[in-house]
Amino acid sequence: MATTKAQVVSLQSEFLPENQLILNAVSEGIYGFNLAGNAVFINPAAERMTGWKAEELLGKNIHNCHHHSHSDGSHYPKEECPIYNTLNDGIAREISHEVFWRKDGSSFPVHYTSTPVYKDGKMMGVVAIFRDISIQKQTEKSLREALEQVQALSETLSSENQYLQLELANRTGDVGISGNSPKIKQLIQQIKLVANTESTVLISGENGTGKELVARNLHKLSKRADKPLVCVNCAAFSAGLLESELFGHEKGAYTGATNRRKGRFELANKGTLFLDEVAELSLEAQSKLLRVIQEQEFERVGSSETIKVDIRLITATHHDLLKRVEQGLFRMDLYYRLNVFPIQVPALRDRLSDIPELVSHLIQDLNRKLGKKITRVSQQGLKKLMLHTWPGNVRELQNVLERETILSQSPVLKLAQLPAIQAPQQKQNSNSTNQTLAEMEKKHITRVLQQTKWRISGALGAASALGLPPSTLRSRMKKLNIERPL
């Protein structure tokens, strides 16, 4: 029931004896309520903040005027209002996460207290004191946004730093694409034709031919050259870890995921993503990759948030992808997505005329890397290189030269560790044409193992000479039944 004007005056006189001038002067809004919950005092600051005049509210229950809804617009029942709860239990309250509503229908965030008022030991009402904290809330919001931006930038820099450290650790020097053979000229022409487009490129070629070098040149000559080139060796990760490596993960997404991490797709945004050994992707990973190519979006592992990316995709493999499609190991739709512009990198044995130029560039790079002053390879050594079959391609040639450079005490490499090997047409016998590829591979690996005294890993090991990771060499030895003699 509304309070009469006479009652309001009487209550004001009890509620505010001689301090009304002070209460009218303060900048905080002040509401006074009697035990019935009706307003008995409203100061000028409250009028200015809410737009409600005192004469419109005095003697009334004003919850439905200034406190009727939450900030999201949902209904705020009077029974849940802290001010009216103080009237019921006499407990003071302090609130800073609500809004008051103006007469014009707009709202503003407030910090307010509701405090019981006692006279002669008996509660006679409640005083609510409030202030507009719009500026404070806006400052807090701006600070949160700034902190989020700093955190995002920090995460990006951390991820990029981690990636760059991995790249520096893995790279042994960029030697360029050397050679003047017809096949190399054709390769360079293809790179120049497609580099400045957005087309997806599939680079094929044997291990050690320089597929990653082709990818780096494609990026260097593209419109995205000033953006990152992010490389992923799909064969280096298990199926489970590869998904996290490509798409990133949220903290707690799986055991060991102690922090949120951006994946390679995010790091490559606006730039180029190079997927080496793409044939090693599991069918599940192939399906997710297809979606990213089609939609240019993905979700981190453990998150439902969709992330948009703009990437140029380059892939590489030493497998015959079409044959793997026929075997059911590779998705046909993904194959056609990747094979927009195929580039075949020739094997070294198919461009032996390029070896002198390759050797010259490799020696320059090795001199910088090892602090040596090698000037050239001897004529006899060069002849040995030209007669070699190079199953490990340019990588094998680089490893041979690096090993010889380390051992050499002369500015001229004589390649004493590399035995003279006759060209295939000179060493064929009546049985050679009947040898299978596996038999030829077994024979070559065994010969290299014998030359390195059956040492597999290390700079002077067979894996280095063959241009293979030690684990791959051990796997090939097991498959080909190659055992060290007792």
Keywords:
486 residues, alpha/beta, 5-stranded antiparallel β-sheet, 5-stranded parallel β-sheet, 21 helices, rod-shaped
Written description of the protein model:
This protein has a 5-stranded antiparallel sheet with strand order 2-1-5-4-3, with helices on both faces. The chain has a 5-stranded parallel sheet with strand order 7-10-13-6-14. The protein is rod-shaped. The chain is built from 21 helices and 16 strands. The protein is 44% helix and 17% strand. With 486 residues, it is an alpha/beta fold.
| Low-confidence residue ranges | 7-11, 168-175, 420-433
According to DSSP, the number of beta strands is 16
Q: What is the average of the pLDDT values?
A: 83
Helical coverage, percent range: 40-55%
Radius of gyration: 39 Å
What best-fitting shape do the alpha-carbon axes yield? rod-shaped
Number of helices: 21
How many angstroms does the end-to-end distance come to?
Answer: 107 Å
Structural class: alpha/beta
**Which strands sit side by side, in order, in the main sheet?**
2-1-5-4-3
- Our estimate of the beta-strand percent is 15-25%
Major sheet, described briefly?
A: 5 strands, antiparallel
Secondary-structure topology with pairs:
Elements (H helix, E strand, L loop, with lengths): L4 H11 L4 H6 L3 E6 L4 E4 L1 H7 L3 H4 L5 H4 L15 H8 L3 E9 L5 E13 L2 E11 L1 H37 L11 H14 L5 E4 L6 H10 L8 E5 L5 H9 E2 L11 E2 L1 H4 L4 E5 L6 H13 L1 E3 L6 E3 L3 E6 L3 H6 L5 H7 L2 E4 L10 H16 L5 E2 L1 H9 L5 H15 L4 E2 L10 H4 L9 H15 L10 H5 L3 H10 L7
Parallel strand pairs: 6-13, 6-14, 7-10, 10-13, 15-16
Antiparallel strand pairs: 1-2, 1-5, 3-4, 4-5, 8-9, 11-12
Helix pairs in contact: 8-9, 15-17
